[in-house]
Write a structure and sequence with these properties.
63% strand, globular
Length: 115
């Protein structure tokens, strides 16, 4: 019924979707990728996280790569962080690299990432 390592027919990993009708309170953990289209109040831990433009996350993110196109408030610990033009971020950043598109709203405090 549930597969540990979801892959499509081409052998590529498939992302887990938290769709626009879902609201989650708590911790979401995945060894793969997550697409957030709904809402989470809590923490997300995954490999790659994409926060879609209508999505909202209040809490913490721990990921190798994070793309924010929606609203995120909290602490982000990510190797690479990309904030799209529709993105709105307020919180603490711990990242090795950041890219912010024109039009994004960012209110951030930066903390040094431990190696």
């Amino acid at each position: 019924m549930f597969e540990r390592d979801k892959k499509n027919e081409g052998g590529e990993s498939v992302a887990s979707l938290i769709d626009e009708d879902m609201r989650i309170t708590g911790t979401v953990v995945s060894s793969g990728d997550i697409i957030l289209a709904g809402g989470v109040e809590g923490e997300i831990q995954c490999r790659h996280l994409f926060v879609e433009d209508q999505a909202k996350l209040t809490g913490n993110i721990n990921a190798e790569e994070t793309v924010i196109a929606g609203v995120v408030s909290g602490e982000v610990s990510s190797g690479i962080l990309r904030i799209k033009s529709t993105g709105n971020f307020d919180g603490i950043l711990k990242t090795s690299g950041i890219e912010v598109e024109e039009g994004a709203i960012v209110n951030a405090r930066f903390r040094k990432r431990r190696r």
